[in-house]
Structure formats: C-alpha cells, structure tokens
Write a structure and sequence with these properties.
Layout: E1 2-6, H1 11-22, E2 26-31, H2 38-44, E3 48-51, H3 55-61, E4 65-68, H4 77-84, E5 89-92, H5 93-101, E6 106-111, H6 116-130, E7 135-137, E8 149-150, E9 156-161, E10 165-167, E11 170-173, E12 182-185, H7 199-211, E13 218-222, H8 226-229, E14 238-243, E15 250-258, E16 261-268, E17 271-278, H9 283-299, E18 324-328, E19 332-337, H10 342-355, E20 361-365, H11 378-385, E21 390-393, H12 410-419, E22 423-426, H13 430-443, E23 447-452, H14 460-474
Parallel strand pairs: 1-2, 1-4, 2-3, 4-5, 6-9, 6-12, 7-9, 12-13, 13-14, 14-15, 19-23, 20-21, 20-23, 21-22
Antiparallel strand pairs: 7-8, 10-11, 15-16, 16-17, 18-19
Length: about 475
C-alpha cells in the first residue's frame, strides 16, 4: 500500500512509518515540526517528509491509507479533506498496529503510569539476548538496542501500552488496540488530566484493557500498588504478582542502592532466579527489571521462567533521558530525567540521593505535560521536590493557554518549599534559571544538578552541561 502519515515526525508515528517501510509498503508523510533526530532517521530510510499540511497536495498523492496522528485535530486542512472522502481509509496509529504490525504476533504490552519505556526496553533487550528475534516499539532511545523500533522476525513484539487516547475520532486508550498476550501493569495513578476525570476513570480504562487479555495470556501485576490490586481478581486469564511483599509470585528481595548502582535478588515462587547488580538506581528500576524478566520468559513460552538467563541485566545501560548523565566532573554532575509526575520526580530524587549521598542536590523542574501545568498536582510536586536541597522552577509551558485559576502556581510551590527550609525560586524565563544555576556553579565547590522535563527545557540542561565541562574554566 501507499501509506500516508499525517504528523509523521512524532516519535511513535515516525517509528511506525519505519516499521511499515520495513514491511514493504510505500511510506510518506507530512508534519509542521520537522527537525532531527526523527527527520534524519526518516530521510535515511528513504521516507519522504513533506513540510506543512495541504489538502490539494494530499489529493494528488492518492494514498491507499492515511494514518492520522494523535496530535491532529479538527480544523487541520488535511483532516477536513480526509473526512470529506468516502473512498480513502483512515486509521489511528494504534488501530494501524492492530491491523498490521501486531497481527499474527505475540504482543507484550507494557502499561502503567510510570516506567513503560524502561520496562519495554528491558523486555526487548532480554528477548534479544535469548535469540527470540523480537520486534518492538519504544517511546525513547534505548542505549542497548539498535533503535526505538524494530519489526523483528520472531513472534514476540514488545510495545508500550499508553493509556492516552488514540485520536480525535477514537477516544479509547491506545493500549485497547494492542492485542495483549502478555500484559504488564507497572503501576496506576491519576494522570492525563486532559483525558481522564479522576483516578476511577483511569481505573476504568485499565479494567477495559484487562478484559481483552485472552485465557491463554498472562497479566503481571505490581502488588505493591494498591490501585492495581483493586482491579483484582481477574478470573479469565493467568495473573502473576510481582513486588516486595510475601504474596508476590516474583519477589524482589534484598534491595540495596549505592553510588556504584543497585543490587537485588529475584525469587520466583521461593526459588532464587537471579542476583542482579547493575548501574541503575532506585527500587522502581528493580521492579521494572522484575516485570521485564517475567514478561520476557512468558513471551518465550517458558513454563519455568527461571530458565531465562538474566545475567545480561548486569550490563544494561538504560534509556536516554532517564537519569541521563550529561556531564560529570570532579566537582559537578549534571543529569537530565524525563520525570514529569510527582511520583516519578520523588522516586528519581530518592534514587539520586542513594547514588550521590554526599552531593548537594539541585532539582530544576519544567512544568510541561498536560497534567503538570495544572493545579491538580501542585501539592504533589511540592512534596516530591522537598527531597532536594535546592529547587528551581521554570515557567509553566504555554501558560497563556491555561486559565490562571487552573494553572500551576510555581511561585506558591517555591514559597512553600522555602517555608520548609529549602532554597527555592520560581523563574519567569528559563534563561534566568540558567543564569542562576551558572552563578551557583561559579560560587560553590560542587554538587549534583538534575533537570526534570519531558520537553527541551529550552536546552538549559545541555547548556549547563557545557558550562560544567568547559565554561567554568573560562570564568
């Protein structure tokens, strides 16, 4: 087929385009924001990317199928043209996966509020080590895999199961389309306030997801998470409990964290499976590893999961932008992390405390996601950031689009943190935040600076790293 991707430069859309190209389809697309690395990746694969959107141009291209990205909405000229046609098929990206990529495969769907990218990467990594030749679609840049997407030749296909909606014309969660054979439930919290009303609304879509796991399938549940255990029992398929409590089928035991990394044991039904020592930090990452190990074993069809060799976990190098060290000098360490939810921020700070126990920790946070920019998590972010020694808050992303009474008040967060004894400031411009960080670096002997953002932070993390590596010598 000739397949046209509307909004092709998004991470998921671009990677999906690569997979369809690998399947032998003719692939092209358009977007308004065309920039590296995705633009370069698509160009290298021979996929044409057109600038902007044009109904006349799309009519001339005559595609067999159009994939409409999640970022597209009514009013877009190409969307309006497609809706006027009665002879051209259009689908959401998740529906495309249901019909093409996942048909005939054994999908391993990694779901949860946090940890999807790391757990998906770990699962694909372990399957690749066994020679299972898996496919995968990962919403990040794995350090140990060739790319974020691979068609693969074996039956397992690992995919992040996002609970966000599929398209403007399909408000079901994406993971509803993904044919789960092995379903991983990492955790469950309220998020995506633009999509869900409350926690119960999020639980509703997870219950829908569980109902489509077949009787021959498997569900992995983090039993340390009360929101997930409230979804049980599930009677129609096999459920495996993973966690730190005695009720767990796969038990995480003897967890220890240190500057060198974390260590822990994985015990399957009272049988020691593996003793892991790796460079990753945080109990949440140990849980990601446990989930991935069991998911990989079940995807391989092993009756005894402990037959899967987990020694390669010791060499796992993670995913870019997850505790990503941008610069390390004898005095300063600069880290970027993708966390944008209070629980993820708190977990990352706790893990970094273990990794750098003697360092003064400066946490810089950019409120950017659709939930983070609202007041809903204001108390949560205040509590999460209180684990740092110093907190700098960037301006709310696209604040003008949010009514003041609904907008996150970074000044209020800074005031509350300061009242608790922390050095905290809110900035109107990211450039001013950068100037303050650089001033601290000039006047202080050293420390740890971590940037929390799911966006670019106006390149402040990169500029801080460059300053740490070279700029200090020039001051």
């Amino acid at each position: 087929m000739r397949v046209y991707f509307m909004g092709i430069c998004g991470t998921a859309m671009g990677n999906a385009a690569l997979l369809l190209k690998e399947q032998g389809h003719e692939v092209l697309g358009a977007d308004s924001g065309i920039y590296p690395p995705m633009s370069d990746v698509l160009a290298d694969a021979g996929i044409e990317v057109l600038v902007g959107f044009s109904a006349e141009r799309l009519a001339e291209l005559k595609p067999d199928q159009i994939v409409i990205g999640n970022a597209m909405s009514r009013g877009n000229v190409e969307v309006e043209w497609v809706l006027d046609q009665s002879d051209i098929s259009y689908v959401s990206l998740p529906q495309l996966f249901h019909q093409t990529i996942l048909a005939g495969r054994r999908p391993v769907v990694i779901a949860g509020t946090h940890g999807k990218t790391t757990t998906s990467t770990l699962t694909a990594y372990l399957l690749k080590q066994t020679g299972a030749r898996p496919g995968w679609l990962i919403g990040g840049l794995p350090n140990d895999l060739s790319s974020g997407a691979c068609l693969g030749e074996g039956r397992p296909f690992v995919i992040e199961g996002d609970e966000y909606d599929s398209a403007f014309f399909d408000k079901r969660s994406k993971f509803i389309h993904y044919r789960p054979q092995v379903a991983v439930l990492n955790n469950l919290e309220f998020d995506h306030a633009d999509i869900f009303r409350d926690l119960e609304d999020v639980k509703r879509t997870f219950r829908h997801f569980l109902r489509i796991v077949p009787g021959s399938g498997h569900v992995l549940v983090n039993t340390d998470d009360e929101n997930l255990t409230s979804l049980l029992p599930v009677s129609w398929t096999q459920v495996h409990r993973v966690g730190t409590g005695p009720e767990s089928d796969l038990l995480i035991r003897n967890f220890r964290d240190s500057p060198e990394g974390a260590s822990f044991d994985l015990v399957w039904k009272e049988k020691l499976w593996a003793q892991v020592g790796w460079s990753m930090h945080g109990l949440f990452n140990a849980r990601n590893a446990a989930m991935a190990a069991l998911a990989a074993a079940l995807a391989e069809g092993l009756e005894d999961p402990t037959q899967l060799d987990l020694s390669s976990l010791d060499h796992f190098n993670g995913v870019k932008r997850r505790q990503d060290v941008l610069a390390r000098t004898p005095a300063w360490t600069v880290i970027e992390d993708f966390a944008h939810h209070p629980t993820a921020v708190a977990g990352a700070i706790e893990a970094l405390r273990a990794a750098y126990p003697e360092a003064t920790l400066t946490a810089c946070f950019e409120p950017r996601s659709n939930s983070a920019v609202t007041k809903r998590f204001e108390s949560g972010f205040t509590e999460a950031l209180s684990g740092a020694d110093r907190v700098y808050l960037g301006p709310v992303h696209r604040a003008e689009r949010i009514p003041p009474e609904e907008r996150l008040d970074t000044g209020h967060i800074a005031s509350r943190l300061a009242a608790g004894g922390l050095a905290a400031r809110a900035f109107d411009e990211n450039s001013a935040l950068l100037e303050q960080v650089q001033s601290d670096m000039r006047s202080e002997p050293g420390g740890l600076i971590v940037y929390f953002t799911n966006g670019s932070f106006d390149a402040v993390p990169k500029k801080t790293a460059e300053f740490a590596l070279g700029g200090l010598d020039k001051v």
